[in-house]
Amino acid sequence: GNRTIFKFRQTTVQEAAYDLLLFEQRRKLHRGIGRWYNEQKSKESNDYLSLMAYHWERAGDAPRALRFLERAAMRASRAALHTEVVRLIEHSIETAARATEQDGADIPRRRFVRWHRLLADAYFGLGKLEACERHARLALEDFGIRAPTSSVGWTARTTLEDWRSTPWRARTAFSKDKRKKESAVVIDASLSADRL
Question: Helix (H) and strand (E) counts for the chain?
């Protein structure tokens, strides 16, 4: 049918119109924009990851928002955009906390391991070694390992290195999909230990 499309020349007018929308209308608007990006920009979605995360978060879909935030952070990490990684991952952690508190969302521990590992790497790249160490330790704690505090403990750390280098199939009888996810968590934890 006939649809009216508005284009705003001034952001203040756009913001005023947006502020007049009811909360559910805003969510619906952002959901529609998120879907549009998924459908129309799927081939170049890497260029729009942060924007897609923004719209899915505003639509009230924290799991999708977190997926795009994490992808954007990993892309920024590969490009050594350390400040951007910190911004994206800190936002991911805040979004996950809100989703857990408000919606009872269950965020897998593997995501926190990855997020803290990415933060450790980013802070290392920024030369902020105390923050690097703090997030490396948090990644290990989320994995279920306390970081060593003595030279004896660091010697025993080789167990983690052995764990990373041993073929995964010999260690577990999990399904292939679960094995892949768990293997990624082990790698993230091990990479975090390398920052300590």
Answer: 11, 0
pLDDT tens digit sequence for 112-170: 999 999 999 999 999 999 999 899 889 888 888 776 666 556 555 555 555 555 544 44
Instruction: Write down the pTM of the prediction.
Output: 0.73
173 pLDDT above the threshold of 60: no
Q: Using alpha carbons only, how large is the chain's radius of gyration in Å?
A: 20
Largest CA distance in the chain: 73
172-to-139, 155, 163 alpha-carbon distances in Å: 22, 25, 12
| 135, 120 Cβ separation under 8 angstroms | yes
CA angle, 2 as apex, 61 and 26 as ends, to 5°? 25
What is the number of residues in the chain?
Answer: 196
Q: How far is it, in rounded angstroms, from Cα 68 to Cα 66?
A: 5
Neighbour tally for 142: CB within 10 Å: 21
